[in-house]
Design goal:
By secondary structure, this protein is an alpha+beta fold. It contains nine helices and 14 strands. Strand 11 (282-285) and strand 12 (293-298) form a beta hairpin. Helix 1 (69-77) runs parallel beside helix 2, helix 1 crosses helix 3 and helix 2 (107-125) crosses helix 4 (153-160).
C-alpha cells in the first residue's frame, strides 16, 4: 500500500509581521506543491529521498532518524507508531525553487504538511492510533522545526487551501476563516532574484520591538489598521479599497524595514514596484521580505500583462501562479 500527499505553497497578501501581534493576515494558497510518498520497504532498511533544489538520498536502519529535521520531527511526534516497519519515502518540493534558489513560497510549511499527512495515513493503515493532522498540530510541528519562529500562517494556508484570513489570539492559537479575493482582481508573482531567511528577519523584528517599544507600537498599529482594512474590503468584495490597502501596506513594510535596520523591501523590489505604479499595478513584497517573491495585483488584465512582459525584460522571473482551493490532499493506492 502506497500513501501520497501534496500541500500547496502560499503568498501573503496582507499582515506580514503585524500578524505576530494579533493583527489579521490575508494569505493565498498557490499551485506550487510539496509532494510526499511513503511505501513499505523492500528490505530491512528505511530509505528516504529529498528532492529540493537537488536530490539527496539516505538509507538507515529501521527506526533510526533520517537526518532531515522536518521529517524526523513528524516521525517523533507520531509516538504511537514509533516502532514503524521499515519504509521507503520521498518528499519533493523542487517546484518551490528556480535555478537552485528558493522562491519564498512557503516550501518548508508545505513540505511539513505533505509529509505529516502522508505519515499519519501510512501509520493508520498499519493499525496505529495516529490522528489525522489539524491546522493547530501542524503549526506546532512547524514552530518546533523553526525553533519557535513564525506565526503559522503559511502552515494554515497549506493545510486549508484557498484564501484565508488568519489571526492569533492572546494564547497564540490560530483563528482561520475562508475569504475570496474581490471579483476582477488578477495577480502574478515576481521573484526578485535572492532568497531570504524568515527566522532571521523575524528575530530582528522581535529585537527591534524590545529595543524601541514606542516606535514599534506606533508602526505596528499602522500595519494592523491597514491589514484589518484590507481584510474587511476583501470580505466585502470592495476591490478598490482592497487594492489601496495592499499598496499602503507595502509602503508600511518598507518603513518597517528602515526602522528595524533590515532590508525588507530590497532595491530590486523597489524597482519592480516603481514599474508597477507606472502601469497602474499594485506591487508589494510577500512574506518576511528581504528578497524572495513579490506580489502584483490589478483590476486591469491588460496592465497586468504588460507588467509581466516588462518585468521579464528587466531580467526578473515572473512566477505564474494560480489559487489552490484544496489544501492538503492525501491519497492511498495499492501500487
Amino acid at each position: 500500500m502506497v500513501v501520497t500527499a501534496r500541500a500547496p505553497g502560499k503568498l501573503v497578501i496582507l499582515g506580514e509581521y503585524a500578524v505576530l501581534s494579533g493583527a489579521p493576515a490575508l494569505v493565498m494558497a498557490v499551485d506550487r506543491y510539496a509532494q510526499a510518498r511513503i511505501a513499505p520497504s523492500r528490505d530491512r532498511r528505511t530509505h528516504f529521498e529529498a528532492r529540493l533544489a537537488e536530490r539527496t538520498k539516505v538509507s538507515v536502519a529501521a527506526g533510526e532518524p533520517t537526518g532531515y529535521a522536518l521529517v524526523d520531527n513528524v516521525l517523533a511526534g507520531a509516538r504511537a507508531f514509533a516502532a514503524a516497519p521499515p519504509w521507503t519515502g520521498s518528499l519533493d518540493s523542487s517546484g518551490f525553487f528556480a535555478g537552485g534558489t528558493k522562491l519564498g513560497l512557503g516550501s518548508s510549511a508545505a513540505a511539513l504538511c505533505a509529509w505529516a499527512g502522508a505519515w499519519a495515513a501510512y501509520a493508520r493503515a498499519h493499525g496505529a492510533q495516529v490522528p489525522a493532522p489539524t491546522a493547530a498540530s501542524l503549526i506546532a510541528l512547524h514552530r518546533a522545526f523553526q525553533r519557535g519562529a513564525g506565526s503559522g500562517l503559511d502552515v494554515a494556508t497549506a493545510f486549508m487551501g484557498g484564501v484565508i484570513r488568519y489571526e492569533l489570539d492572546g494564547a497564540a492559537a490560530p483563528r482561520i476563516g475562508s475569504v475570496r479575493l474581490p471579483n476582477g482582481v488578477g495577480f502574478a508573482g515576481v521573484f526578485a532574484g535572492s532568497s531570504a531567511s524568515t527566522p532571521d528577519l523575524v528575530g530582528r523584528y522581535h529585537a527591534w520591538e524590545a529595543a524601541e517599544p514606542l516606535a514599534a507600537g506606533q508602526l505596528k498599529d499602522r500595519l494592523a489598521g491597514l491589514a484589518a482594512a484590507g481584510c474587511e474590503a476583501a470580505s466585502a468584495g470592495d476591490a478598490r479599497v482592497f487594492l489601496d490597502a495592499v499598496s499602503d501596506y507595502g509602503e508600511a513594510l518598507e518603513a518597517l524595514g528602515l526602522a528595524m535596520g533590515a532590508e525588507i523591501v530590497t532595491g530590486e523590489h523597489r524597482r519592480i514596484g516603481l514599474l508597477g505604479r507606472k502601469l497602474g499595478v499594485v506591487y508589494k513584497t510577500s512574506g518576511a521580505g528581504g528578497g524572495d517573491v513579490g506580489l502584483a495585483l490589478s483590476l486591469q488584465p491588460e496592465s497586468l500583462r504588460e507588467f509581466r512582459a516588462r518585468v521579464a525584460e528587466l531580467g526578473f522571473l515572473v512566477v505564474e501562479l494560480g489559487i489552490d482551493q484544496r489544501g492538503l490532499v492525501v491519497g492511498e493506492s495499492s501500487e
